[in-house]
Each structure stands twice: as structure tokens, then as C-alpha cells.
Specification:
Residues 11-110 form the Cyclic nucleotide-binding domain. InterPro entries: cNMP-bd_dom (IPR000595), cNMP-bd_dom_sf (IPR018490), RmlC-like_jellyroll (IPR014710). It holds the Pfam family cNMP_binding. The protein has a domain at 3-115: Jelly Rolls (Sandwich). The protein is α+β, with helices and mostly antiparallel strands. The strands form 2 sheets. It has a 4-stranded antiparallel β-sheet. 49% of the residues lie in helices and 22% in strands. β4 and β5 (61-68) form a beta hairpin. The chain contains 8 helices and 8 strands.
Length: 185
């Protein structure tokens, strides 16, 4: 889920050496939006601290599609790259310190700084693998097995993220999630 997207100190140092003067600090208070549904995502960002929720509205019910933790990069990628309205919103679940770049800066870094290009390619490659695993898990694992996998691989989410967001992320009702947690303890 998130553990494989965490940036190593070495990777971060290399990327920051090339691009640190290009990123700007954005402090996003809890419950504020990085992007709202139907708006263009303005930034590619690195989360120094805080927690961001990616979510969509399905028939009036908010569904969490992804959770971004500190020391990860995040974006509504399709919206950002193509400057199209986002199909999701990205909201701060806690106060966040984000380092952000706009599209022209991002494109310049990709085109003119091979280490940044390589880093971005590896980041996207890992993300695609994680999305594939997540989709397979949704189709093949029971809710209990998905929760246990989360507990095993991303226990930090269970400590930092409110239960209803985790339940939505795992495709489990709040009530079922409470039963699973009660049975596992």
C-alpha cells in the first residue's frame, strides 16, 4: 500500500540536491484540500509531514482510494500532467508540510535533470506494481485477509489513520471493520 513508496534517505538526498531550490513549501491545514474534485491538480508534492487522503464521491458517499503518508510523493497524476479536472479530491487528514512544484517546473526537471527523471520513473514503476497488487487483493482476499495484510505491511496506517478511512480504503464497511479488529485482538 504505502510502504513501498517511501523514499529512502539516499534517494531523497539525490533528488533534493538537484531540485531543492525548485520546490516551495506549502502548509496545508487539517481538512483543507490540495485539490478538489473537478479542479485541476496544481502540484506534484513531497509530504514532509502529515497525512493526505485521496477520495472520490460515489452516490453521495466518500470512498478513500489512497492514503499518502509523510516522506512520500503524491499528486492527482492524470489531472496534473494533462491539466484536466481531477476525478478525486486530496484532503489533509492532519496538518501537512508539503514541498510542491508546478507543472512547468516538473516538466523541466524531467527533461533536463536525468537523476530526477530516473527517480520519477522508479517511483511510477513502484506505484503501478502497488496498484496491481491492491486490485488483485480486492478481488482475491477476504476483508479479514486484507486487514491482516495491512496490519503486516503498513501497521503505521492503522496507528495514524482514523478507522472509517481505513475501512473505506480496504473496501470494508465500518461495522465489518470493527468486527474484524475485535476478532483479531
Amino acid at each position: 500500500m504505502n510502504s513501498h513508496l517511501k523514499v529512502t534517505q539516499s534517494q531523497l538526498t539525490d533528488v533534493l540536491e538537484i531540485s531543492q531550490h525548485r520546490f516551495t513549501l506549502l502548509e496545508l491545514p487539517k481538512n483543507e484540500f490540495l485539490v478538489r474534485e473537478n479542479q485541476v491538480c496544481p502540484y506534484f508534492c513531497f509530504i514532509e509531514s502529515g497525512l493526505l487522503q485521496h477520495a472520490i464521491d460515489v452516490n453521495g458517499e466518500e470512498k478513500t482510494t489512497y492514503l499518502s503518508l509523510r516522506h512520500t510523493f503524491t499528486v492527482s497524476l492524470h489531472s496534473f500532467l494533462h491539466q484536466l479536472p481531477s476525478r478525486k479530491h486530496i484532503k489533509a487528514l492532519s496538518d501537512c508540510r508539503l514541498w510542491v512544484i508546478d507543472l512547468p517546473t516538473f516538466q523541466d526537471l524531467i527533461a533536463n535533470h536525468p537523476p530526477f527523471h530516473d527517480f520519477y520513473f522508479q517511483l511510477i514503476e513502484r506505484q503501478i506494481c502497488l496498484i496491481d497488487e491492491y486490485r488483485i487483493d480486492l478481488l482475491t482476499l477476504s476483508p479479514e485477509e486484507r486487514y491482516l495484510k495491512l496490519l503486516q505491511n503498513d501497521a503505521v496506517l492503522i496507528q495514524q489513520v482514523p478507522l472509517h478511512y481505513l475501512a473505506s480504503f480496504l473496501g470494508i464497511s465500518n461495522r465489518h471493520m470493527s468486527r474484524i479488529r475485535k476478532n483479531i485482538k
